[in-house]
Design brief:
- This protein has helices at residues 2-27, 29-47, 49-59, 63-66, 69-78, 95-105, 121-133, 139-170.
- It is mainly alpha-helical and 186 residues long.
- The protein has two domains: 1-47; 48-185, no CATH class.
- Keywords: Membrane, Transmembrane, Transmembrane helix.
- One of its GO terms (biological process) is phosphoenolpyruvate-dependent sugar phosphotransferase system.
């Protein structure tokens, strides 16, 4: 009989825990995201979507900028998870690679700019604790994290874009020039 009581308590406890996580989201990150989305959309409206799109096109014309500076700016200014919205200014064939670059950068950025992804700061702190225990400076670690992160996001962006374009061409979604074919015309 005791087993059934424990099983029932454990079963309902799982849903109680889920409810607490949900309330944390409702009172924590969801309002933050709504305010960030509103602020970003307001800035886009004030500046003008055409200007921002033109800036994004100029910045992302070359893959080296598209998969280094562009995701770094997105993560630095919009933080995780809002940074991924910068992808809206890219053509469809480049969006997956931008997302891959941006999502891969939210960890290496925390050493220098913890505001960009405070939820993952524990990873950096866990590693840096060993250095502080030895009395060593964290500056070189943070800089190496950042530089390594930029190299990794560049490589991931390039590889992901190549794979995406090949898959889209194979599925008849892109023409020979890499332009998106409207649905029903492929």
């Amino acid at each position: 009989m005791d087993f059934l009581v424990q099983l029932a308590e454990g079963f309902i406890g799982m849903f109680e825990e889920g409810g607490e996580v949900f309330m944390d989201l409702v009172t924590g990150i969801i309002p933050l995201l709504i305010v960030l989305i509103t602020a970003v959309n307001a800035v886009i409206k004030f500046v003008g979507e055409e200007r921002i799109t033109l800036f994004a096109k100029k910045m992302t014309k070359y893959f080296i900028l598209r998969y280094t500076i562009f995701p770094v700016l997105a993560v630095f200014f919009l933080t995780n998870p809002m940074a991924y919205t910068f992808g809206r200014f890219l053509p469809e064939r480049q969006k997956p690679a931008f997302y891959d670059s941006a999502v891969s950068f939210v960890h290496p950025v925390t050493g220098l700019f913890p505001h960009a992804n405070p939820a993952e700061l524990f990873v950096y702190i866990g590693i840096s604790t060993g250095l502080t225990t030895l009395g060593l400076s964290l500056g070189p670690l943070a800089i190496m994290y950042f530089i390594t992160g930029v190299v990794v996001i560049l490589l991931r962006g390039i590889v992901t874009e190549i794979i995406t374009v090949r898959m889209m061409k194979k599925q008849g979604m892109l023409d020979d020039n890499g332009n998106l074919i409207p649905r029903g015309e492929g």
